[in-house]
Amino acid sequence: MLLALAALAIPQASRGAAFGDLDNDGDIDVVVENLDGTPMILRNNGGNQKHWISLELVGSKSNRLAIGARVKAIAGSLVQVDEVRSGGSYLSQNDLRIHFGLGNANTVDRLEIRWPSGRTQVLSDLAANHFYVVKESAGVVAPEKTRPAGVVVGPRPWSLANDQRSMTNDQMVKYNNDFLRPNFQSALIRYSGDRRIA
Ligand SMILES: [Ca+2]
């Protein structure tokens, strides 16, 4: 909380915000687009005390990005619904993966996907704290099954060993320098408690 309060207390005019799990550690980070300044990354370092699940949907009959797909996740008495959306805040695009916080539940008992094609798909007993790629009609698939051969993307969860899924600070800085800064002139700001350290 101190981190968020400190970052949000910086006086500046901002116009857009994009939300996504930049470092693939299971929590949502934020990129804020500032007026007359570089974008600012608010990396969520608050610690993952609760469970979560992340879903990348790949359409086959539906559009490939599954824009418009509606997902219902049931974990015990917890029922949540979300959609894959295009756009978001001003000049911003959120992570297309759907992220559900699960509280203390360590399993999603039932997952219902209503694809834009009209098809409904049901999955069950998905373990928490994992990234899943779900292909329309095929179910959970290996991520490389959804990529054209030879396509290389930036650091993604499936490129890291399961026990090394979370980026270290050094990896995050490298990611910022290699992938974000050349395109967006990002500024990675880190805090220790409420004190800015970089
Ligand atoms: Ca994160």
Q: Report on the biggest sheet.
A: 4 strands, mixed
Find the count of extended strands (DSSP E, 2+ residues): 14
Helical run tally: 2
Q: What do the pLDDT scores average to?
A: 80
* SSE-based structural type: mainly beta
Fold and architecture overview:
The chain has 198 residues and is mainly beta. 12% of the residues lie in helices and 36% in strands. The protein contains two helices and 14 strands. The protein has helices spanning 2-8, 169-184, and strands at residues 14-20, 29-34, 40-42, 51-58, 70-75, 78-83, 98-103, 107-114, 120-127, 131-135, 139-141, 187-188, 191-192, 195-196. The strands form four sheets. Strands 1-2-3-12 form a four-stranded mixed β-sheet, with helices on one face. The longest helix is centred in the last third of the chain and has 16 residues, at 169-184. It is globular, with a radius of gyration of 18 Å. Residues 152-165 have low confidence and may be disordered. The structure holds calcium ion. Residues 21-23, 25, 27, 29, 44 line the site of calcium ion (CA).
Layout: helices, strands, pairs:
Blueprint lengths: L1 H7 L5 E7 L8 E6 L5 E3 L8 E8 L11 E6 L2 E6 L14 E6 L3 E8 L5 E8 L3 E5 L3 E3 L27 H16 L2 E2 L2 E2 L2 E2 L2
Parallel strand pairs: 3-12, 4-10
Antiparallel strand pairs: 1-2, 2-3, 4-7, 5-6, 5-8, 8-9, 10-11, 13-14
Bound molecules: calcium ion.
Features:
198 residues; mainly beta; four-stranded mixed beta sheet; 2 helices; 12% helix; binds calcium ion
In short:
This protein has 198 residues and is mainly beta. The chain has helices at 2-8, 169-184; strands at residues 14-20, 29-34, 40-42, 51-58, 70-75, 78-83, 98-103, 107-114, 120-127, 131-135, 139-141, 187-188, 191-192, 195-196. The chain has a four-stranded mixed β-sheet, with helices on one face. The chain has a four-stranded mixed β-sheet with strand order 7-4-10-11, with no helix packed on it.
